[in-house]
Write a structure and sequence with these properties.
Elements (H helix, E strand, L loop, with lengths): L1 H27 L3 E9 L19 E5 L3 E10 L3 E10 L7 E5 L8 E9 L7 E11 L4 E11 L17
């Protein structure tokens, strides 16, 4: 009789564990993917250079203070996008940081192309920064891509407004 009770307990435990894992599978079905992350500083549109399939996660992207940071990525969220967040913080303990939320045209999208330009203020402290692109869906899930970024000192007299015409100045 003792063995029957012991075997019954083992069988019950196995069925309990199996039913828990089914709950986990339903939660795991909702996912977010961020692919083809592209970062660039002012003047990033160079017709001679192709960024197709280029992985910026392996290199440090440079942007001058006073210029803009070009960000592009493809986003897939099975439970629809709630918001996309861009964060920059210093690697050297500096005080300048940036956090910008994007909703608008990205909210409720399942497949979308994120493409934005963020102005880096002229007084941003030059140095090494860590870039985060965070996508949150309507169910509370999130995915994140990271990259290294270097903010260069602003050059007086350098005009960034005309650098989006396809030529380097």
């Amino acid at each position: 009789m003792k063995q029957l009770t012991y075997i019954s307990a083992i069988v019950f435990t196995l069925f309990s564990l199996a039913s828990c894992s089914n709950d986990d599978d339903a939660t795991a079905a909702a996912k977010i993917e961020i692919t083809e992350l592209e970062l660039g500083g002012s003047g990033h549109h160079n017709e001679e250079e192709s960024h197709e399939g280029h992985d910026h996660a392996e290199e440090v992207v440079e942007v001058e203070a006073g210029g803009d940071l070009h960000i592009a990525a493809k986003v897939y969220a099975s439970d629809k996008v709630a918001m996309i967040i861009v964060e920059l913080h210093s690697e050297n303990g500096g005080t300048w940081e940036l956090e910008q939320d994007f909703t608008g045209k990205y909210v409720n999208a399942i497949n979308t192309e994120f493409h934005e330009h963020i102005l880096i203020p002229e007084d941003a402290v030059p140095g090494d920064y860590h870039f985060h692109l965070v996508v949150k869906d309507l169910s509370g899930n999130q995915a994140e891509e990271e990259a290294e970024l270097k903010i260069l000192e602003h050059v007086e007299g350098h005009n960034h407004e005309d650098e989006h015409d396809g030529h380097n100045h």
